[in-house]
Amino acid sequence: MENAGEEPAPLLPVQELAAGRHGAGDDGGVPSRYVARRAHDGSEETPTAAVPVIDLGRLCQPAADGESASEAAKLRAALQSWGLFLVANHGIEVSLMDAVTEASREFFRQPLVEKQRYTNMVGGNFQLEGYGNDRVATEEQVLDWSDRHYLKVEPQDERNLALWPPCLRDVLHEFTTKCTTLKDCLLPEMAKLLELDGNYFSNQFSGKAETYARFNYYPPCPRPELVFGLKPHTDASFITLVMVDSNIGGLQVLRDGEWYNVPNKPDTLLINLGDQMEIMSNGIFKSPVHRVVPDAEKERLSVVMFYSLDPEREIQPAGKLIDENHPALYKKVKIKEYIAGLFEYFAQGKLVIETAKI
């Protein structure tokens, strides 16, 4: 959403604030604009989500011994409850995953003047791609304790390579290719769980379907209980692939009003359903509310791949999932307008999925 009048003044990267290069904050080193979390989060230890690990090789290559059916049952339970799962045996080499993580770390460790060559503020105006903060819509907006670098990676002919740092360029291209193969393997299995044609979801992705890569950097925070690394939200994507730093947690998912830590497991990827999938499955599969909380001592990095349909496409619940006993729970929405709504609602700390419900 564009505001009338000028954009709020650009912010310093959180990495600079955390390093103490620009003075202390208002609350134990945290500037007041970042203070969001309150005592209702409680001091009790956060439980860990029972998120399954799906063996992609077994799932996508049916075996006579029933291993595929077993993996499919675990996948169904995860999609209907948590809306996310971990995947192993996914075909992406550990060496490539490590290279992407190290390239991301190298980028964020560059001097600020180097990173600002890829800024998302152009002529004082925010653009989605590039390095910096998420869009700040108002002076009252509560800010997240994180910096990011956001890049369109598909369609390939729409890449803005001027925003691709040399340290990321080659590994990101290879990683994108591998992740897309993984996504293409998963979608038919998800469709079959809904008793839809195996190609139903895959056929939704035209040549104009978009994929964005987001590199997140969460600096240590002196008062982590006061802030969000990333405020609670759902993804507006169809499906999201996440590679997290296995050395530090912080991702949490909301279920039945309670927050759970999402477990880290070495060499796995996290698959997170987005709102587009929830709408098309008529709510059978869940797009989970999730957030990131920072650590007091350690930095955290993640690399996220958002897969979305053609912005001009309209979606609604699949017709085969609707009958007199199962009415449509979501309206028809246009992808472009829905994603624009995401950024507006995210800035307000609200969920855009609520606007699509009947």
UniProtKB/TrEMBL annotation:
Domain Fe2OG dioxygenase: from-to ranges: 208-309
Record PROSITE patterns: FE2OG_OXY
Keyword flag Signal: no
Domain of life: Eukaryota
InterPro entries per UniProt: DIOX_N, IPNS-like_FE2OG_OXY, IPNS-like_sf, Oxoglu/Fe-dep_dioxygenase_dom, Plant_2OG-oxidoreductases
Signal peptide: none
Keywords: Iron, Metal-binding, Oxidoreductase
Xref: Pfam families: 2OG-FeII_Oxy, DIOX_N
Family: Belongs to the iron/ascorbate-dependent oxidoreductase family.
PANTHER family associated with the record: OXOGLUTARATE/IRON-DEPENDENT DIOXYGENASE
Protein name: Fe2OG dioxygenase domain-containing protein
Organism in which the protein naturally occurs: Digitaria exilis
